[in-house]
Write a structure and sequence with these properties.
Low-confidence stretches of chain B: 1-6, 43-48
Strand content of chain A: under 5%
Distance between the termini of chain A: 93 Å
Distance between the termini of chain B: 86 Å
Number of helices of chain B: 18
Shape of chain B: elongated
CATH architecture of the largest domain in chain A: Orthogonal Bundle
Structural class of chain B: alpha+beta
Number of strands of chain A: 3
Structural class of chain A: mainly alpha
Number of domains of chain A: 3
Number of helices of chain A: 10
CATH topology of the largest domain in chain A: Cytochrome Bc1 Complex, Chain D, domain 2
Shape of chain A: elongated
Strand content of chain B: 15-25%
Mean pLDDT of chain A: 87
Helix content of chain A: 40-55%
Largest sheet of chain B: 5 strands, antiparallel
Number of strands of chain B: 17
Strand order of the largest sheet of chain A: 1-2
Order of helices and strands of chain A: EEEHHHHHHHHHH
Mean pLDDT of chain B: 86
CATH class of the largest domain in chain A: Mainly Alpha
Low-confidence stretches of chain A: 290-303
Oligomer: heterodimer
CATH architecture of the domain at 410-521 in chain B: Sandwich
Largest interface: A-B, 41 and 49 residues
CATH topology of the domain at 410-521 in chain B: Immunoglobulin-like
Helix content of chain B: 40-55%
């Protein structure tokens, strides 16, 4: 039995235990404090009635308010969608050629495109849109475009994809394999000639003749490429699959050609527009004038 | 609830004393002021204290404090402080301050939505929160300073809890009369007239509480607009919630809990007890002069037996926290000095010297008790600790003012893209991308020049300036009072090595404020 007593100087009872001469005062708590405890109990009862509280087998009891965290999330999502509705509507209405003129809308499109890019495109093009030379995924940051780098061309590529069977409008080009067509010396000469376009090797007459006969039709006399056919530019510093002699030789003998899914039907047109705006904004986007040969570039002058 | 109260009639002391081992033990609390100093150590003696059967007390019911009206120098000082503090609180949001068309014209405004804090000519952004932290540190050290110089003066005069409690106690007096009338009314049965009185009083409480909350929200939005929106029911719901919460807390804390807040809830008295020393000014009952207590009549009969205290309990009656200062310094004493006013008045009436209860340091008390001369109040204030606190306080204040005076209203931060770190362009040049954040802290749009420095051959363009206009410097306009993010693309000719370089931002106005950030240009390693 604890020996409770009054502490003489303070007039307060002790708890009745002593540890090496140290005793603890048992100061009674003020009454309002006690009320606060009762208040918390009342609050808890109210909470249990109003909100989900008791865990059952596969769900918790539903409070009378009907609140749930999932429901709240759904509400917030729909509120966010509502908030974007105006922007999406504007985007749906504006022809993509007119988009850059509307600065704020363009900004929103770029932001929305960045989000969509992270969901749909990073798997191949990488989170920084830098692509992969090893796998042949194009870098979207630079100013070299196989099929055109203005908003309209990018949107077209996004919509119809590249080399997609079953889409008549898909971007498509085929480079024939030249395996067996040249001997080693001819192949070396041709490789030299191709590298010479960008000053990486000495040109030579043998390579030049082979190039003129076999390659110039698509890639152009000076290797300038042709976007209408999707023939890569050979006279610039950017090589989709690498600029080493081995890489070029392999590409001549047994060309690898990439594919890109068509996103029309999988993503809505507004998202496609936003994606195009984002890719265009990465630093290499082109204006419309420069790509007059693009198939879909007929600019709608009536907004 | 099991709380058997003491069954003795209240106010009657149990004077019985148990003598054990030659030591007198009382069954009643003995004030630390009168207990002999060895009492605290007595428990340590190796003996079992006498067993007592104590009733268990689960809680301590509040004893209502009905403080009596008093007038005197300290009461008048309290009125003055109340007037000044409430005046500052209610008037400040209505002071206007012209900042031009792009910023609000309220002198003191905490603009949470736009994350700006305005105080007269000072505008603070969230990244400058160290100013606020500095102010809070100054407030803390200011409290230390005040405590070490004049004890719990903050508690006694300026603390909002004290000011509002004082206000509510005046309401009590206005509605129910002075101390005795209020005690009578408390004890009276609930008649209709009492109900009416209480309803009237509590609606005044609510009114005060409402205006307390109502003034608070004015600091967070344009006051005239907010008042209009508030009464039209168009203000943000957070405004109504804040007013409701503050009404409730004001009425609860100021109207009903009062001294309980100081005694049980507030941490500051505890901290202060650790900061007081023998040189801190305290409201002190000079027990060597006052004890033993005896009425004027008794003293007249027995001239040498009694001290100056006539046990009139005026000091207890006027106390806003309901303590007896004669028990010595205690946590409930907020040192408001009202007991000094009361006691001096009584001493004056009976022709004894004033100052039986007075502001004094413990050191002075000992000196005075021993019959020596006391220090002058100024010498009491000017002691090394108070001076050291003043210097630290002023030093921080000076440093803050210096930082405020020399801060730049233009700032640049640069985040280089890390993925991809660099980009080869079709003409062989190498491009890096950067996100520049240009901060314009002036309340007007400003043209700024971005320049790339120490990077030979560099050309820069941005998300809004096309590549065909690329150049080593670009000009952008930053909106008033905002941060503008600019995507900057910097390209250098083929063959440039990776290196450090600088972005420089210069405001194109008479201020010519500038900021330089060093960052890195990445390039392919094998080229």
């Amino acid at each position: 039995m604890a020996n409770k007593r009054i502490d003489q100087p303070t007039g307060t009872p002790t708890v009745g235990h002593e540890w090496d001469g140290i005793e603890e005062l048992d100061t009674p708590l003020p009454r309002w404090w006690l009320w606060t405890f009762y208040l918390t109990i009342a609050f808890a009862v109210g909470y249990v009635i109003a909100y989900p509280a008791w865990p059952m087998i596969d769900r918790a009891t539903e409070g009378v308010l009907g609140w749930s965290s999932r429901g709240e999330l759904a509400e917030e999502m729909s509120a966010a969608d509502q908030a974007r509705a105006t922007m999406r509507e504007q985007l749906a209405r504006i022809p993509i050629e007119r988009l850059p003129e509307d600065g704020p809308l363009m900004q929103q499109a770029v932001a929305g495109g960045a989000a969509a890019f992270r969901v749909n495109c990073v798997q191949c093009h990488g989170s920084g849109a830098a692509g992969s030379q090893e796998l042949g995924y194009p870098n979207l940051n630079d100013d070299d475009w196989l099929w055109g780098g203005d908003l309209k061309a990018i949107e077209y590529t996004l919509a119809h994809g590249i080399r997609q069977a079953g889409d008549d409008e898909t971007r498509s080009s085929v480079m024939p394999p030249f395996a067996g067509a040249f001997d080693t010396a001819q192949l070396n000469a041709l490789t030299d000639h191709v590298l010479a376009f960008s000053g990486k090797a000495e040109s030579n007459p043998v390579g030049a003749r082979i190039y003129a006969d076999n390659c110039a039709a698509c890639h152009g006399i000076r290797g300038e490429g042709d976007r209408a056919q999707g023939a890569p530019t050979l006279n610039d510093a950017i090589w989709l699959r690498g600029s080493s002699r081995e890489a070029i030789k392999q590409q001549i003998l047994d060309p690898r050609m990439g594919m890109m899914p068509k996103w029309e039907g999988r993503l809505d047109p507004v998202t496609l527009k936003m994606l195009a705006a984002y890719v265009h904004s990465l630093g290499g986007g082109e204006d419309f004038v420069e790509v007059a040969e693009d198939p879909e570039v007929a600019v709608d002058e009536q907004p | 609830m099991n709380n058997p109260e003491d069954n003795r009639p209240p106010g009657e002391r149990d004077w019985s004393v148990v003598v054990e081992d030659g030591i007198a033990k009382s069954n009643q609390p003995v004030s630390s002021a009168v207990a002999d100093p060895a009492a605290t150590t007595r428990r340590h003696e190796p003996h079992e204290p006498a067993r007592e059967h104590l009733p268990e007390r689960l809680y301590e019911p509040r004893k209502a404090v009905h403080n009596k009206r008093i007038d005197g120098p300290f009461r008048r000082f309290k009125w003055l402080v109340m007037l000044v503090t409430l005046g500052i609180y209610y008037v400040t949001p209505w002071i206007r301050w012209d900042r031009g068309p792009y910023a609000p014209d309220q002198a003191v405004l905490v603009d949470l939505a736009n994350r700006r804090f305005y105080m007269f000519s000072i505008e603070i952004w969230p990244h400058e929160f160290y100013f606020v932290a500095g102010l809070l540190i100054m407030a803390g050290i200011g409290l230390f300073l005040v405590t070490s110089a004049v004890g719990r003066a903050w508690c006694g005069y300026a603390c909002p809890q004290t000011v509002w409690t004082d206000l509510f106690q005046h309401v009590d007096r206005f509605v129910d009369g002075d101390r005795n009338a209020r005690i009578r009314l408390d004890a009276a049965p609930w008649t209709w007239s009492k109900v009416a009185r209480r309803a009237f009083k509590w609606s005044i409480y609510l009114f005060i509480g409402f205006w307390t909350g109502g003034a608070w929200i004015m600091y967070f939005a344009d006051a005239p607009t907010l008042v209009e929106d508030f009464w039209r029911g168009e203000a943000a719901s957070v405004a109504y919630i804040t007013v409701a919460v503050l009404t409730l807390t004001t009425v609860t804390l100021g109207g009903f809990m009062r001294e309980q807040v100081c005694i049980y809830m507030c941490p500051w008295p505890r901290i202060q007890t650790a900061m007081m020393d023998e040189k801190s000014l305290l409201v002190t009952y000079k027990d060597w002069r006052g004890e033993p207590r005896g009425s004027v009549k008794k003293a007249a009969k027995n001239p040498d037996r009694f001290g100056d205290c006539i046990d009139c309990t005026q000091c207890v009656q006027v106390c806003p926290t309901g303590i007896d200062i004669r028990e010595g310094p205690q946590i409930g004493c907020i040192t408001c000095g009202l007991c000094i006013d009361a006691c001096d008045r009584v001493m004056d009436d009976i022709g004894r010297p004033p100052g039986l209860i007075d502001y004094a340091t413990l050191e002075d008390c000992e000196r005075e008790a021993a019959g020596e001369a006391v220090k002058s109040p100024w010498r009491t204030l000017l002691r090394p600790r108070a001076i050291a606190y003043t210097m630290i306080w002023a030093g921080i204040g000076g440093a803050l003012l210096f930082a405020l005076g020399t801060r730049s209203h233009t700032e640049l931060t640069v985040a280089p893209d890390r993925n991809p770190p660099f980009m080869l362009m079709s003409d062989g040049s190498v491009r890096n991308s950067y996100t520049l954040k240009i901060r314009n802290m002036e309340s007007r749009p400003r043209a700024m020049e971005i320049a790339v420095e120490s990077l030979p051959g560099a050309l820069m363009w941005t998300d809004t300036i096309n590549r065909d206009e690329a150049s080593a410097t670009q000009r952008v306009t930053v909106p008033a009072d905002l941060v503008r993010a600019v995507r900057a693309y910097v390209a250098v000719p083929a063959g440039t090595a990776a290196q450090q370089f600088e972005f420089r931002i210069t405001s194109l106005d008479e201020q010519r404020e500038t900021d330089v950030v060093e960052t890195r240009f990445d390039a392919p390693e094998d080229e």
